[in-house]
Amino acid sequence: MKAINVLLALLVSFGLAFGVAELGLRLLGFAPPAINTEFDPALGWRKQANSKIHRESGEYDVTIVTDALGLRDDFSSTEIPAKPEGTTRMLFLGDSFTLGYTVEREDLFVDLLEKAWQREGRQVEIINAGTQAYSTDQALVWLGEHGAKFDPDVVALFPYENDIWWNAQATYLGEGKPLFDESGNLVSGELPVREPRGWFGSTAVGNLLRKSEKMPRMKVGDAGSMTVEQTSRLTAPPEPTKIAEERTRLLVKKMADASRALGAEFVVCPIPSREAVVAPETLPAGTDPARPYQLFVDAAKAAGAKTSLPLEPLKAAAASGWTPYYGRDFHLNAQGNLILAETLKTDLETAGLVPPAGASAAPIHLAQLDGSSPPPAAPGKMPKWPFWFLGLWAALGTLYTQTYKDESTGLGYLKVAGLLGVVFATAIGVTKLIAIVPPFYGQLLLIGLVIAILTFVLYKLGDRVGTIAELMKAFTLRGHWYLMPLLTVLLTVGSLLVVAASSPLIAPFIYTLF
């Protein structure tokens, strides 16, 4: 019986340690990302049908909902309705830019464009078939497998610079994907089944420990290294990138042919990178951020496809005070999507790919790109810290004044506000500091800060650490598993109070907890 109790004590101790580690890692930003994809034997992955995920960062707060077909659209059934008479149906293909991975649907260029045309009395349907991390080859395979079901009149491709490298790879960060050879033949066949993430992989601890491929980098002469996705910016790219570029040109030609086989016009709208729109003050030697964009433009023209070219409108808008991209994230924000929608609207109407407007409908301009009007307010989300501050102030202030009734009530609330102000100012300052460095280094900075704090706590505890370890060992060996949670809480609180009493700099942060 004692052996069972000891085992239970060890299991409880392990569970407590795992819980603390899980909570800490999630606070440090190591929570596993929300996913809405599943394995697809031909495409590598596809979006799950009828799914809902929430994505949040310091720059956006987005909910992505898919319909019965696994699209970010409005199909309520797996049966695709027949195209209404006189309606032009457009099929938009691309990656996270097309899907709208960082904007709500009301801010996504796909939905902005469709609603604008419909308000003008034009009979247009736009189907959003964008999927995160898809490259041009996956868009081509998707079109071949599903395109005919939608009976499109227009097929539009929205490639980004990272398409180029992955168009010549059989995997994407460890995930199998389609691969076409230099002759344009699909050689990948049925892809290996992707192992599910499982419960452990869904934890922050599992996310940290699981083996995952990182974005590979390539050494570029004396300029150091860059990610393989960005090597197409080089004016003299290495041989593997040249192969990927040639493969990309071939895939654009095959998409044009596949679209025409469906009786649809093919349009290419390459999305430029932020650096191509707002060039940084210094560029690495031998690079041109607009080069990948131009590659798609040239490939489209060589394939006889129509184009919509947002680079110059985005540059003009940025020069007029617009902010088309997020600061840290590389995607277009709500302003950028608005500019892209206006560019597409103008170009596709000029190309005669859109039915005429209603007789009494006035043309709708989504964005004034000539600088005659100020840009719309930059999107942002309401910060949560004021609500936390007020809530904690009310709760802790009440507890303090009720505990120390001999003090003035106003003075008690003022003291609590001061302590909370120090804590929140420090936390917000650290958050801002982390936000201005790349995410990887931000996480390292945060981990280093946590390690420094824990080291400081252990230093202040001194010999008491040994006493704590002996006490934990004694309770475990005696099989007092039912007391382990209570013991852990008491030792934690006691340790924090000891540190607070010995350090006036740390005391405000610790006392605020109580």
Automatic annotation (TrEMBL):
Keywords: Membrane, Transmembrane, Transmembrane helix. Pfam families: DUF5989, Lipase_GDSL_2. Residues 219-239 are annotated as: Disordered. GO terms for molecular function: hydrolase activity, acting on ester bonds. Residues 92-337 form the SGNH hydrolase-type esterase domain. The chain crosses the membrane at residues 385-401, 413-434, 440-461, 482-511. Signal peptide: none annotated. InterPro entries: DUF5989, SGNH_hydro, SGNH_hydro_sf. It comes from the Bacteria. This is SGNH hydrolase-type esterase domain-containing protein. It comes from Saltatorellus ferox.
